[in-house]
Amino acid sequence: MPFGHGQHFLTNAGRALQAAVGDWQFAGSLRARSGFPITPGNGFNFPTNFELTPPGTLLGAIHTHVTRTDKNGFPNLFGNDPDAVAALLDFTRPGGSGTRNGLNGPGYFSTDMTVTKGFHVPWSENQKLIFSAAAYNVFNNVNFSELFVQGLQPQPDSTFGRFNGTTNSLRGGNNRDMEFGLRFEF
Q1: What secondary structure does DSSP assign to 27-67, as a single string?
Q2: What's the pTM value of the predicted model, to 2 decimals?
Q3: Burial grade of 114 (CB within 10 A; 0-12, 13-18, 19 or more)
């Protein structure tokens, strides 16, 4: 930050003012992406493909958008009317290819920030005590994961498109993580 000795503002600050406004640093990072492509399921396991569910067939364009609460009160990939989207999916017959990666999963947004403050120790100008505070996902954004979308099958039911986890579920369930540090430089 541009305050204190050797900076643009308050260059001639006294020792007490320098201790309060000098040697601050700020860093941040922003991660944002659109959703990854996902494939709707067929809803049926053919016995000849080792119990793998083949992709369903899209009958029309499906625009995904996450809603925090669908008609049943749950977050859903298909907005407030997942049954209308389910009507646009069809069963893929044996020998058919289906539609792979025809849907977009949920996007991702997260911001990380770090603030550090340096304090010169009174016994030496070459030594410094550094305090830091870091926050990951500082705005506590909920990011749903395409790995946790339930019921991507063509038959409509109450769980079609419902999320049952977030990307944070993959790292142990923490939403906003914070850490503090103290370092002595010599």
Answers
A1: EEEEEEE-PPEE--B-S---GGGTTPPPBPEESS----B-B
A2: 0.67
A3: middle
Q: Are 23 and 4 in contact (CB under 8 A)?
A: yes
CA distances from 126 to 35, 79, 116, 119, 120 (A): 49, 59, 18, 11, 8
Question: Position of tokens 């044996």?
Answer: 94
d(CA 99, CA 90): 10
Strands 89-90, 57-58: parallel, antiparallel or unpaired by DSSP?
Answer: antiparallel
pLDDT digits over 47-94, tens only?
A: 555 556 678 888 888 888 888 888 878 888 888 888 888 888 888 877
Counting beta carbons within 10 angstroms of the beta carbon of residue 48, is it exposed (0 to 12), middle (13 to 18) or buried (19 or more)? exposed
Domain boundaries, the chain: 15-185
Q: What is the DSSP letter of 101?
A: S
